[in-house]
Amino acid sequence: MRAPGSARPGQLRRDSADPRRDSTRSPAPARDSPRRSNGRARIKLNFCCGDRRGRGAGGFSRFPRRCPGWWALLWVQLHVWRALAQDDVAPYFKTEPTLPQTHLEGNRLILTCLAEGSWPLEFKWLHNDMEITEFSREYKYVIPSLKKSDGGFYQCVVRNRMGALLQRKSEVQVAYMGNFQGENQWEAVPEGQAAVLNVPHIPSYPKPQVTWFRDGHKIIPSSRM
């Protein structure tokens, strides 16, 4: 005879210790409802809503009608990429230099690089194809007091995350005038003959205009002079 509750030969005994009969065990945590979950959970459901039995080559579902959320996600991603591409604008110049500009020696000169594009924009300046500044947010180049050596060609380089652009050359000419070189001139000629007075050399730019004076009075050009 078997004792009550004993197991048959070859059969395991189940008692209250069996977890399948233990009514006091804690229930398995319920999954979050898709309506209360975040967007990531819903995206996962969208990708898993295809028919597993209907998968073709490459693992894609043959029945996209059963998974409309997948197409909606793809549509949103395409619009986001398009918006990002439209927001990024390569740098471009609003104005380009045309004619040379002449400034007096000792004056202050401010060169500006008017450019637009996606920020942040960074600027760098070149003088006669040599770098004179590093890339920075400053779009102006200031020369407090012009010297003759400051003359030449200036260029601006602007860049952002979309690329870099080199501006056309802008010529800067420095106007200056030196002192008379040489001593006083003395000319002795016989009466009735022409006297030729040479203009003394004066280092200057541009070429100076010469006016003659006699005994402190301006000489009016005529057939005799």
Automatic annotation (TrEMBL):
Residues annotated as domain Ig-like: 91-173
InterPro entries: Cell_Adh-Cytoskel_Orgn, Ig-like_dom, Ig-like_dom_sf, Ig-like_fold, Ig_sub, Ig_sub2
Superkingdom, natural source: Eukaryota
A GO BP annotation: homophilic cell adhesion via plasma membrane adhesion molecules
Skewed-composition ranges (Basic and acidic residues): 12-24
Region entry Disordered, spans: 1-38
Keywords attached to this entry: Disulfide bond, Signal
Cellular-component GO terms for this entry: plasma membrane
Keyword Signal belongs to the record: yes
SMART domains, per the entry: IG, IGc2
Record PANTHER family: CONTACTIN 5, IG-LIKE DOMAIN-CONTAINING PROTEIN
Name of the featured protein: Protein sidekick-1-like
Organism (species): Thamnophis sirtalis
